[in-house]
């Protein structure tokens, strides 16, 4: 399978799951995507990388006992050329830097932040770890999009902080892509009165079959499989509460 070697500024480059029972999460996502795992040493908090064909696709981390109120969720990380400069820009443009810049033992530098509409995201400045080595393949993630009550404000923020371009809006629907170097890399759209959320979409060969596997392994099917112009999609909530989407290529 093709291997990613670098990401442009502002492109989603990594995802990870914060969960309450990492062993149960590993079993669930292996059943869905066939993942194997590399478990980090104690000094990393046993941060775990999910592997597909031996290549990294995502991270998983066990919440600490004092994080009982933290949400179980997938986080999307956007690539930064300079984490310190990005930290300042987040604040200057109305966002909230929820952490300082964290140096992850030479692997890279990270920030957890919220945009001005409340959408939580991560920032990653690559070191040894560039991000996911496999994307857009079955069993890896294929798309990331932000739903928010104030999409225009969010677009202004991500454009200013990460230099992302904004695509043309869809007819009759406040949805635009975000672009890096002229290529669509994600989406932002309005959902009135909704809690802002960056959602991760995973590529699968068969959305219906994977939805059935998720259901039989204790997940909740939030949205049943349906055909869209972009492929057949479903929305799943894993047994611990993290919401994500599945997408298979449209039938030719």
Automatic annotation (TrEMBL):
Q: Which SUPFAM superfamilies match?
A: Glyoxalase/Bleomycin resistance protein/Dihydroxybiphenyl dioxygenase (SSF54593)
Q: Tell me where on the tree of life, at the top rank, the source sits.
A: Bacteria
- What is the species listed in this Swiss-Prot or TrEMBL entry? Kutzneria kofuensis
> Gene3D superfamilies attached here?
2,3-Dihydroxybiphenyl 1,2-Dioxygenase, domain 1
- PANTHER family, per database record: GB|AAF24581.1, GLYOXALASE-RELATED
- Its protein name is VOC domain-containing protein
**Annotated VOC domain residues:** 11-126, 140-249
